[in-house]
Specification:
By secondary structure, this protein is mostly beta strands. The protein is built from six helices and 63 strands. It is elongated, with a radius of gyration of 45 Å. The two termini are 70 Å apart.
Length: 952
């Protein structure tokens, strides 16, 4: 595409082939190389007569302007042709090919837009008339036009010089200036009157200069110009009309036209339009004016149109804003300020170097924006571009529970925006408590503890929990790493593994404590992870999004409907299961697009993100209010729950296990077939009932007469469309009168478990005395089943090994779902206590019995340091005592250069000051036992860990 401009200036008439004056029709056409017309000009001297040997200006009119702008086509240019014809006739106003007396001839000029030598001044003619005489010649200027581009142009109309008003005395004059342009260069089409002038109603006279200061509406005007724009002026006189015009005049003083283009500096500056030619062929008038480009608005009118306070995701649509999400206390918070530059987008619209200030709660905290930004028109602001907003980071320690007032203001080059104040609701949240379990398989070793924490420590990026202390880790003594031979590519094997995990957690967890078993990515599995909602156990690969997904299930979230999962939340919004909102990570600045799959969906992998819908669900689940928040902020993590008092004496012959409840679990297919797993008496109370979409399932315990002794709802969930069988479980009060355990769907019985008439009977064979127990080695447990008096067929027994103490404060289950009658327990991994016992627990499907070793004392185990991020500048660590559980708060000490420098689960290396520092972390349990982990050498300025020095 090559844009061209032809300015037609004059026609000199040599011979009109008439004895006197006549009328003339002149026709100029622009043709492309294929002969197609791309522009046209016509002229007949405003229906006036012409004479031989006269030069006339080709002033044109509004319909046929004398400046033609056209595209000749071709890449990058093309060949075109200018063609002119003219005719005369005494009576026709527009003599043409079909109506004329004389043909004045025609002429052509061929040009190539790619050859500058063929552009510039154009001469069409002289032509030859039909009588063989020289007819006329047309002059013009042919130029290329630069690409269109928007700017504001200021026009100043200064003076008009009247040469001849065609009156013998004073007369009234009306002068009119108009502008014409097509829509171009982001500017709208122009067709408007710029100025009209009549010397304030006074008369004018020949050969005089008149200022245009009294012109209406103003002699100064600004046009939004996107390309070539025609400025056109004409004037009339009349003795009796105060505003002579084309509709009421005695004399026409002529017209003139120029072209201005913001992309061509040569077309701007000072201009003289004229001298014009009157209808009597005299010089009429000359108008002086100037045109200048206005710079893009250098004084932007910054306006804050909205403020978004976000910790992961937010409902917000600038510029009108929207409801702000409630947020979590103790969490780094990004405040994004949406600005309108106040500059017309057609002039670039942007202004660089915009900064700002955020003030929290009337001045308790003030911070400058993270980086200068380039402000732009609000319509051009892309929420998925962090650089499009003015951003402020409020550190986690400044985000306290309660309502906060946030005021922001932007500035650039001394110009301030409007201030804007909003309120934000920050809620105290309880930590997510996680039992750390690392899993090995026959082919893949377990991941390390550091890798576990690397994955799990990323949870606050997505969750409404505190950045520091938002997760409290528990470890199961002796079971921080477990080995499984279950087939994790099979539905049954996966559910069996969840059974194993739930058995490990049975005497530890409660509704607020979640067990997640993490496997290496290379472990043979056909799923990313799996959670059992009601039992608070899950397993999965060492993936951040998988971990967050399965923990979300354990906290009560259903699936988002994206990617085809079943068991979806019917109320989820947006209905396509995407997040629907732009997510952002305050500390990293990573943006997550609005079309990312929700964290609880099957869309995407690690790029799944927390939606606003699930953010609020979790925030409501984890929030603590009022005094609870204050207490939780100061208190140590909760104690492990008591598991009932166990007698200290040796129990060699089985007796009923004293748990008040019975755990019921099994499998059910989509068609309703039921497989029962062994029920087990337990101290653990039932969890609050949960419901899910679909049919209502219940588990009940009945006596021999069919009377329901206890019942509870159970959630039956099929997560995947290909899944044919799933687990169900419930906890009910234990009753010795039980005869059947029944699963029903919408009241219809699906299957029943017949309860054996009595508890299991077995005896402990070894150890039978304290000297048989090597408290510094392995305890060899052996037992024997007694079948005396049991009716045929005899039920199968399932055994568990439970380690506990007489105080009942901890009870790991190192042996679960055993079918044999022996187990070797490594006491070196067990928590110490002055009165320890090992129990063997047996269930015959419903009733539960146990035997127990004589009490023995074990030395207390030192605490373990659970390291999080240690590369700097922010370090994270927690402790875990085998005897007492998590170690946090003041019991975690950061040691810098051999001296205690700070306490707490996190430490900023930059607080140490310049220089190189050696840092370690020490955890101390309530008995005074401690463990110190050296972390290495750090740069106190950057906070980064330094490479290990290698001795030469």
């Amino acid at each position: 595409m090559t844009l061209m401009r032809l300015t037609l200036n004059t026609v000199y008439l040599f011979e009109d082939e008439e004895s006197g004056s006549t009328r003339m029709g002149l026709y100029v056409r622009v043709l492309d190389n294929a002969g197609n017309q791309v522009a046209e000009f016509r002229w007949n001297r405003r229906n006036g007569e012409v004479e031989d040997n006269f030069q006339y200006p080709l002033d044109g009119n509004q319909e046929y302007p004398s400046v033609l702008v056209f595209d000749i086509g071709g890449e990058p240019g093309g060949i075109g042709r200018l063609h002119v014809k003219a005719y005369t006739d005494n009576d026709e106003r527009w003599p043409d090919e079909g109506h004329h007396e004389n043909f004045l001839g025609e002429a052509d000029v061929v040009f190539d837009t790619r050859e500058p030598s063929q552009l510039g001044q154009v001469l069409l003619g002289p032509t030859t008339t039909d009588n063989g005489n020289s007819g006329y010649v047309v002059t013009g200027l042919l130029e290329t036009v630069p690409p269109r581009g928007f700017r504001h142009v200021r026009l100043v109309f200064k003076d008009v010089v009247v040469f001849d008003d065609e009156n013998s005395d004073f007369t009234h004059m009306g002068l009119y200036v108009r502008a014409f342009a097509p829509a171009q260069g982001d500017a709208e089409a122009i067709d408007q009157e710029l100025l009209r002038w009549n010397n304030s109603g006074d008369r004018v006279f020949d050969e005089a200069l008149f200022p245009l200061a009294g012109g209406l509406p103003s002699p100064v005007t600004t046009l939004a110009v996107g390309g070539p724009t025609r400025i056109w002026v004409e004037a009339y006189t009349h003795d009796d009309e105060s505003w002579p015009s084309g509709g009421a005049y005695e004399n026409f003083l002529g017209r003139a036209m120029i072209t201005i283009d913001p992309n061509e500096p040569d077309t701007l500056g000072r201009h003289a339009l004229g001298p014009t030619q009157t209808d009597q062929t005299h010089n009429g008038f000359l108008l002086t004016m100037s045109s200048e480009l206005l710079p893009p608005d250098a004084a932007p009118n910054l306006e804050i149109t909205g403020v978004e306070v976000t910790q992961a995701t937010q409902h917000f649509t600038p510029p009108a804003g929207g409801p702000q999400h409630a947020l979590a206390a103790g969490k780094a918070t990004l405040v994004r300020v949406y600005l309108d530059s106040g500059i017309d987008p057609r002039e670039g619209g942007t202004v660089a170097g915009v900064v700002g200030t955020l003030t929290l709660n009337g001045g308790s905290f003030t911070v400058r924006s993270l980086n200068p930004i380039t402000a732009r028109p609000i319509a051009q602001v892309d929420r998925e571009q962090l650089a499009h907003t003015l951003n402020f980071l409020v550190p986690a320690d400044r985000v306290t529970a309660g309502t906060a007032k946030i005021q922001v203001q932007a500035e650039v080059a001394g110009t301030l925006s409007n201030p804007m104040e909003i309120t934000a609701d920050f809620r105290a949240t309880r930590p997510v408590t996680i039992w750390m379990v690392r899993v090995s398989t026959p082919t893949v070793p377990a991941i390390g503890a550091a890798r576990y924490r690397t994955v799990s420590d990323a949870l606050p990026r997505r969750y409404p929990i505190a950045d520091t202390g938002g997760i409290v880790y528990y470890t199961v003594p002796g079971l921080t790493e477990i080995h499984t031979t279950r087939n994790l590519t099979d539905e049954g094997g996966q559910e069996d593994f969840l059974d194993d995990l739930e058995d490990i957690q049975e005497d530890h967890g409660n509704d607020d404590q979640l067990l997640y078993a993490m496997l290496d990515q290379a472990a043979p599995m056909n799923i990313g992870g799996l959670a059992r909602y009601v039992d608070h156990v899950a397993f999965g690969r060492d993936s951040e999004s998988t971990f967050a997904h399965e923990v979300g299930h354990l906290l009560g979230l259903l699936h988002a409907p994206c990617g085809g999962p079943e068991h979806t939340d019917e109320d989820f919004t947006p209905p396509d299961g995407r997040t629907g909102e732009v997510g952002v990570e305050p500390l990293t600045g990573i943006i997550h697009p609005a079309d990312a799959g929700d964290l609880m969906s099957y869309c995407g992998g690690d790029d799944r993100w927390m939606s606003g819908y699930h953010w609020l669900r979790l925030l409501n689940t984890l929030s603590v209010r009022g005094e609870q928040a204050d207490e939780r902020a100061d208190a140590a993590p909760p104690e492990r729950p008591a598991h009932g008092t166990v007698p200290a004496a040796l129990t060699t012959t089985s007796r009923p296990f004293p748990g008040q409840y019975v755990r019921v679990r099994g499998r059910v297919t989509r068609t309703g077939a039921v497989r029962w797993q062994p029920c087990l008496r337990t101290f653990r109370k039932p969890s609050p009932p949960r419901t899910g979409p679909g049919p209502v399932h219940t588990v009940s315990v009945e006596d021999a007469s069919g009377q329901v002794l206890a019942d509870a709802p159970t959630v039956v969930v099929f997560d995947r469309r290909e899944q044919q069988e799933t687990a169900f479980s419930a906890r009910l009060p234990y009753t010795a009168r039980a005869h059947r355990v029944v699963l029903r769907r919408d009241g219809t019985e699906l299957g029943a478990l017949l309860v054996p008439p009595g508890p299991p009977q077995f005896v402990l064979n070894t150890p039978l005395s304290a000297p048989e127990i090597d408290t510094e080695g392995v305890l060899h447990l052996r037992w024997q089943r007694l079948d005396v008096g049991e009716p045929e067929p005899r039920p199968a027994y399932t055994y568990f090994v439970r380690f506990t103490n007489a105080d009942g404060t901890f009870a790991p289950r190192p042996g679960v779902n055993l079918s044999g009658t022996s187990f070797d327990l490594d006491l070196r991994t067990m928590p110490g206590h002055e009165r320890c016992v090992a129990q063997v627990i047996a269930t015959n499907g419903y009733h539960t019995s146990y035997v127990q070793t004589p009490p023995f004392a074990l030395p207390a185990q030192p605490p373990e340091v659970l390291l999080g991020a240690v590369d700097g500048p922010l370090l994270n660590a927690q402790g875990s005592s085998p005897q007492h559980g998590p170690i946090t708060g003041a019991d975690v000490t950061w040691v810098v250069d051999g001296r205690a420098a700070s306490t707490g689960t996190s430490f900023d290396v930059r607080s140490t000051g310049s220089g190189t520092h050696t840092i370690a972390v020490r955890v101390t349990d309530r008995d005074g036992l401690d463990t110190t982990a050296p972390l290495g050498r750090y740069d106190g300025t950057s906070g980064e860990r330094l490479p290990v020095q290698v001795e030469q």
